[in-house]
Design goal:
The protein has helices spanning 36-44, 62-65, 68-74, 153-156, 169-183, 187-197, 216-228, and strands spanning 17-21, 24-28, 52-56, 78-82, 99-102, 107-112, 115-121, 131-135, 140-144, 204-207, 213-214. By secondary structure, it is an alpha/beta fold. It has one domain (17-228): Metallo-beta-lactamase, Chain A (4-Layer Sandwich), CATH 3.60.15.
Length: 236
């Protein structure tokens, strides 16, 4: 959708995505209440709200899905989320009849008559019930908090428009490193995830915070960097 460089400093930068196939749409990580007005307005320019049938939530955090009740009020959609969060997101307005609960091993999800995407487990990175979405047509991997970067607003700005893609990986590391070390508890789930996604044909890694890794070279640079990172580091 783009970057809002004019957002208040007290609101973390988040990315919201829209996946459309034929006349069916899925919103990926719809965001918090503060973002609902601008996000819904932008998405309404791309798709009829009546065609939004699913909302995919990579995990339960408020910046990911606290606007759920508002989205459910303007769409006839079902929320796709890891099963361990089913009773938690009820506080955001979800009910059993509009939840699709994903088991720990993930699944292939039939979004439209002739199209399915893959739901890939990414547990403990950082949420204990974290999910990724892989679109086999565009070869985009939506990774939630994996690859997230905390970028100051001034560093997002360019002469014409805010940056969306990582241009200088080495420079980008300083925005990612603390988040991954502090929020992700151990190396074992990281190794499992890297082994799993390395088998996919990925052209783009798209996190919920920060910039997008576009192209196989940038995707591989991120995977190699993440593989070498020692997670679960906390310094008092």
């Amino acid at each position: 959708m783009g970057k809002d460089v004019d957002r208040p400093d007290y609101i973390i930068d988040t990315n919201q995505y829209l996946l459309i196939h034929d006349d069916v749409a899925t919103i990926i990580d719809p965001g918090g209440i503060e973002m609902f007005s601008s996000v819904s307005s932008a998405f309404a320019g791309e798709v009829r709200m009546s065609n939004v049938k699913f909302i995919f939530s990579s995990h339960q955090d408020p910046d990911v899905v606290s606007a759920l009740a508002l989205w459910l009020s303007i769409t006839d959609s079902k929320i796709i989320i890891d099963r361990i969060w089913s009773s938690f997101i009820s506080h955001y307005g979800a009910k059993p009849n509009n939840m699709i609960m994903v088991e720990d091993g993930g699944m292939k999800f039939n979004m439209a008559k002739d199209y399915a995407f893959d739901i890939i487990p990414a547990h403990y990175l950082h949420s204990p019930g974290q999910l990724n979405l892989y679109d086999p047509i565009s070869k985009i991997l939506f990774t939630g908090d994996i690859g997230a970067a905390l970028i100051p607003k001034e560093d997002l700005k360019s002469k014409r428009r805010p940056n969306v893609f990582v241009k200088d990986f080495d420079n980008h590391i300083k925005y990612m490193e603390f988040f991954h070390k502090r929020f992700m508890p151990s190396n074992e789930p990281k190794k499992i995830w890297i082994d799993r996604v390395s088998k996919l044909d990925v052209e783009m890694i798209v996190p919920q915070h920060g910039l997008i890794f576009k192209g196989k070279d940038m995707v591989n640079r991120f995977l190699n960097w993440f593989d070498s990172l020692n997670l679960g580091i906390y310094s008092k």
